[in-house]
Amino acid sequence: MKTLLYATYVSPFPANSGERIRVLNLISALRSLGYTVEAFVGNYDNVDLKSHCRDGIHFHQIPFAWPRLRQAAGIYFRADAGFMRDLASLHARTPVTAAVLDYGFIGAHIDPIARLGIPVVLGTHNVESALTGQTPKRSPGARAAIGLRQMVERRHERLFFPRADAVICVSEEDKRVYEKFIPARRLHVIPNFVDIPDRFQQGDRLNRIVMSGSFDNFQNCEGLQWFAEQVWDDGLRNRTGLYVVGKRSDEAVRALKDIRGITGLGARDDLLAEIGTSRCAIFPLLHGGGTRVKCLEAMAARTPVVTTSKGCEGIVHGGTFWVADSAAAFKDAILDVFSDAAQAQARAAEARRIFDKLYSLPANLNGLDHVLASAACVRFARSSRGYRTASGQRTSKTA
Fold first, then answer.
1. Are residues 52 and 59 in contact, defined by beta-carbon separation less than 8 angstroms?
2. Per-residue pLDDT reduced to its tens digit, 220-253
3. Which domains are present in the chain?
4. Rounded distance, CA 209 to CA 244, Å?
5. What is the DSSP letter of 314?
6. Nearest-5° angle of CA 204, CA 349, CA 342?
7. pTM of the model as a whole
8. Once rounded to an integer, what is the mean pLDDT over residues 26-37?
9. CA 312 to CA 310: how far, in whole Å?
10. Are the C-beta atoms of 21 and 3 separated by less than 8 Å?
């Protein structure tokens, strides 16, 4: 069986945020393609990674942290020597067919891995530098810090991303951004996808709205604040309740200064159960990029979705979502869901059909297999003629 390296800064356990869920589904998909997956992942919650290993998937803690400017800007531009020693040792024992470097600023490892003759696929969850630029800037100091961080991130993207043999984008919108500095033939759109059986066809729905996500992320916190202050009123409060679930959701709700009718559930091992037992899922986001895993989970759980345009950006939903960008329209959309249950469930059922066609694990296996095959072809061509590294030096033909 062929061996594949998967590496990410993201800590996938517990799976209580979109990026964590994406990581686990991508690893599962690679295993479904027949690879033994050696997964080097973050472990910020100090879980027992060995307890999550299973046949053909082995988890290891990645030996470096998510880069931050306070560590030194150079961390964005240097490969980690310890990680490269681990990879070289693994490759010597069991030849690695391909390496998938997923999410964040991990691009400095592309050239060292390529020199081992391993095809490199770079995964992106969004255009990270663009997302950084959307971060709220509440003071001159904050604006300067965000500007510096965005400059470093953009430099990393343009310096290293073109070095990958294949780059995965989650949407056509992101692909168009990357086409400005990466050859189009090396860009591949693989949307966020999740492996969710259709288990919410029957069963009672609780009289509540749910908002799910990781409230470590400013876009979820800002969206919740907008909803609480601009949309949530006595008309909605007397009709239903809002339950906010996910990492630090309880803290985010407390920050609202006890606005009545909103409950923070905190982290949950099974976010899907919270979504699948609610009458409506809301995504009142004003910032962000990529595609929202939380929207896909609601589609899979047959839960009607009310969202802003930004909240469902990049997702093909065929008109099954209620999309509203003003406070009044957002409130009216929620009331529409509650007023006509039959219509709401019919639209949710159609959303499940679209999910199965576009965003399920089986629907994306062929595309992922094509990405790996394309990366191998590019690596072979580059190895045959040599190519310039990120530093501008020309490699040998065995690069």
1. yes
2. 999 999 999 999 999 999 999 999 999 899 999 9
3. 3-194+362-385 (3.40.50.2000), 206-358 (3.40.50.2000)
4. 8
5. T
6. 60
7. 0.86
8. 97
9. 6
10. no
